[in-house]
Amino acid sequence: LDASYSMTERLEGGETKMAVAKRVLLDTLKAIPPTTYIGLRIYGYSANPINACSASKLMVPFGQHNQAIIASALVGLNPTGETPISLSIQQAVRQ
Known about the structure:
Blueprint lengths: L16 H15 L6 E6 L12 E8 L3 H9 L9 H10 L1
Helix pairs in contact: 1-2
């Protein structure tokens, strides 16, 4: 999930990109069977210029029955930093 500052942008309906992303993820989690291995990686969550380009982490490790844990992690997530997308993709591939 992109948690960079660009996700604060408001769309036509007035919602932020982050609010839409969270809503879509929560709806998607409901449709995923509990035995499916899923996890949550976020990137762009740090406003600290020292680590902004490496701000990518696996918030919820892959596992079964993770829907509630992922939903909880989304609640307190606020967009703040840069967008290290290539690093995030490389880490996701390795995991």
